[in-house]
């Protein structure tokens, strides 16, 4: 538990973690950023909050206007 | 020295190293002992060595952090908004409060959607946990916890149970029953036990396991049926305030954020921290995975939200404005991941364009801090909970 550890123990824990992380594999932002952008573009058409949904289709837009079966 | 005092040498076994040597009197916690001169010296410098070790650990940590930054910087060839330069800008957004859920007697601290995209569970400072039908605003269930500040609540994937906890240091599961005669509290099951407050909880892919985060600095995975601890996650240097599970397709990981300003990504099976990020200037109140699982967003008391790309292993966007000076308490993405909704302590909700980094809308309505915010499972609306005792559904 972090609350029970001394400053030294906390530092040791952090140090061990950092040593592991330095060895992680990484990719270029130009590549990964592009993939994020492509994901958004592929899903954008189905995003109701982004594209908006016609009043009669969205159960929240008109109170009592929809029956849910 | 003109007046020399001769020390009467006592010879014998040292109280510390047991070797036969000339002894000196030494006082350890008001008890007189006899140490040899070597042990006297070691004792005198012990305090010094302790500090040296701490300082050298700090130095090592700093240099490793520097090295990590260097490695990360090598892949930072472009900014996210540059990648998104030619993406069409977003138009004006009209989002309004469509429902207001009133019924809590005090600050709403947490909420979660049911997979049926309609029901919501919310918890409050006064110990009440309520299940609502968000279409009709009716309350379907209510239970009073034995503690105040129920900071965490979650809906089970089946929709048949809810989990909640807070200052009681536990996470309890309540099966939801539609039998009017049954008292919900009677079937309560205590699942998780921490040594400090419960700040967040979430069912995994089934009703059988729960992941918890606590003020004791740890996260833990529990078996609901037996209450057994399956895995614990140590690494945060202070209270853990939030967690989010990776979308099921991306595997068994989750991300947590804490008062140590760190966001950590964990492997649920091994308990190991895979990656960690420390770029916020203050407590991280909320973390949420990006829909594809390749990134996550965070909201912090430093008034910024940030996007971290897991494969590039770095922060790739900051969502902030000079005019926003209050902490962000909760964040969530729209279905496609293009929009990031963030609730703030200045009572507003800001809507950010994830790719371009700009704010597309501010939503007013709450009369106190926004403490919790979640987009519905099918992305048709989002719900915000506030210290003004209400929840609002926006669409």
From TrEMBL, chain A:
GO molecular function: G-protein beta-subunit binding
One BP term from GO: G protein-coupled receptor signaling pathway
Subcellular location: Cell membrane
Domain of life (superkingdom): Eukaryota
Region entry Disordered, spans: 47-69
InterPro entries noted in UniProt: G-protein_gamma (IPR001770), G-protein_gamma-like_dom (IPR015898), GGL_sf (IPR036284)
GO cellular component, one term: heterotrimeric G-protein complex
Pfam family, one: G-gamma
Domain G protein gamma intervals: 1-69
Coiled-coil residue windows: 1-35
Entry's transmembrane regions: none
Keyword RNA-binding: no
Keywords: Cell membrane, Coiled coil, Lipoprotein, Membrane, Methylation, Prenylation, Transducer
Protein's membrane topology: Lipid-anchor
Biased composition annotated in UniProt, kind: Basic and acidic residues: 53-69
Main location: membrane
Function: Guanine nucleotide-binding proteins (G proteins) are involved as a modulator or transducer in various transmembrane signaling systems. The beta and gamma chains are required for the GTPase activity, for replacement of GDP by GTP, and for G protein-effector interaction.
Subunit structure: G proteins are composed of 3 units; alpha, beta and gamma.
Similarity comment text for this entry: Belongs to the G protein gamma family.
Protein name as catalogued: Guanine nucleotide-binding protein subunit gamma
Source species: Hirundo rustica rustica
From TrEMBL, chain B:
Protein name: G protein subunit beta 5
Keywords carried by this UniProt record: Coiled coil, Repeat, Transducer, WD repeat
Family as reported in the entry's similarity comment: Belongs to the WD repeat G protein beta family.
Ranges: WD repeats: 101-133, 191-232, 233-276, 277-318, 330-362, 363-395
Single biological process term from Gene Ontology: signal transduction
Keyword Transmembrane: no
Cited InterPro entries: G-protein_beta_1-5, WD40/YVTN_repeat-like_dom_sf, WD40_G-protein_beta-like, WD40_PAC1, WD40_repeat_CS, WD40_repeat_dom_sf, WD40_rpt
Alphabetical list of Pfam families matching this protein: WD40_Gbeta (PF25391)
Coiled coil: 51-81
Lineage of producing organism: Eukaryota, Metazoa, Chordata, Craniata, Vertebrata
Protein origin, superkingdom: Eukaryota
